[in-house]
């Protein structure tokens, strides 16, 4: 399996000290910054947009920024995030009128493209567009809030996604988002995930490094 990546979700960070919080998780060993964009339309919550992404780049963040769009429509905001320094841009197929076109748009803007599957969304369309996908994100909670419990059926879905990715022969990361903790990461990794989003598990802990190290150790064990 490819190297595992830990992507703390800044949704659970202290927004009043966002730059410091991002510096702290990266110094604690995080690989990516997971950036949750919610529009109070596609999901019932409202968070941050391209200006905040750009501000993190200006602050000096050089790590990959993993933008998770929970917005409808999708396409209008993609160039703004590319200009703001996004590395990966992922979206929910239900929120896009033309999934193939949105994937193309993200890649044309020089970013990696990800497709996100909600707990009730089947993986069927993945095979139709797999040549254009750099990342598959399996939601293990319903999108909109941090701190929810991991939905157990996500493990079987991860296994199905892993099989589709492996059959494609392409270099595609399999990311999981929602309810990931140090004490369930081993079974999630065993189901095929290689990229782990964790918000509350990291930011609600007193010692970010201890949680990130425990996560890596439990995957390796
Ligand atoms: C939920 C977001 C997640 C969320 C994860 O819509 O996409 O990234 O922040 O938070 P935890 O790890 O607390 O479930
Ligand atoms: Zn997310």
Automatic annotation (TrEMBL):
The keyword Zinc-finger does not apply. It catalyses: D-ribulose 5-phosphate = D-xylulose 5-phosphate. Keywords: Carbohydrate metabolism, Isomerase, Metal-binding. Its EC number is 5.1.3.1. The active site is at residues 36, 177. InterPro entries: Aldolase_TIM, Ribul_P_3_epim, Ribul_P_3_epim-like, RibuloseP-bd_barrel. A divalent metal cation binds at residues 34, 36, 68, 177. Its cofactor is Mn(2+); Zn(2+); Fe(2+); Co(2+). One of its GO terms (molecular function) is D-ribulose-phosphate 3-epimerase activity. It comes from the Bacteria. Binds 1 divalent metal cation per subunit. Pathway: Carbohydrate degradation. CDD domains: RPE. PROSITE patterns: RIBUL_P_3_EPIMER_1, RIBUL_P_3_EPIMER_2. Substrate binds at residues 9, 68, 144-147, 177-179, 199-200. NCBIfam families: PRK05581.1-4, rpe. Catalyzes the reversible epimerization of D-ribulose 5-phosphate to D-xylulose 5-phosphate. Belongs to the ribulose-phosphate 3-epimerase family. This is Ribulose-phosphate 3-epimerase. It comes from Coralloluteibacterium thermophilum. The lineage of its organism: Bacteria, Pseudomonadati, Pseudomonadota, Gammaproteobacteria, Lysobacterales.
């Amino acid at each position: 399996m490819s190297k595992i990546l830990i992507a703390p979700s800044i949704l659970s960070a202290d927004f009043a000290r966002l730059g410091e919080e991002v510096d702290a998780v990266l110094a604690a060993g995080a690989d990516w910054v997971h950036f949750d964009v919610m529009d109070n339309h596609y999901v019932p919550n409202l968070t941050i947009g391209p200006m905040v992404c750009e501000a993190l780049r200006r602050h000096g963040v050089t790590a990959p920024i993993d933008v998770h769009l929970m917005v409808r429509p999708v396409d209008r905001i993609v160039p703004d995030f590319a200009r703001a320094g996004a590395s990966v841009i992922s979206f929910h197929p239900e929120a896009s009128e033309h999934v193939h076109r949105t994937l193309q748009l993200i890649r044309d803007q020089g970013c990696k493209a990800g497709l996100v599957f909600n707990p009730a969304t089947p993986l069927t369309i993945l095979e139709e567009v797999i040549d254009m996908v750099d990342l598959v994100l399996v939601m293990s909670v319903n999108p909109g809030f941090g701190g929810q419990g991991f939905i157990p059926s996500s493990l079987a879905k991860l296994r199905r996604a892993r099989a589709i990715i492996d059959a494609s022969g392409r270099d595609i990361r399999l990311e999981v988002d929602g309810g990931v903790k140090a004490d369930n990461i081993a079974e999630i990794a065993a189901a095929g995930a290689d990229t782990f989003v964790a918000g509350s598990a990291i930011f609600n802990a007193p010692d970010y490094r201890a949680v990130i190290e425990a996560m890596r150790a439990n995957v390796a064990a």
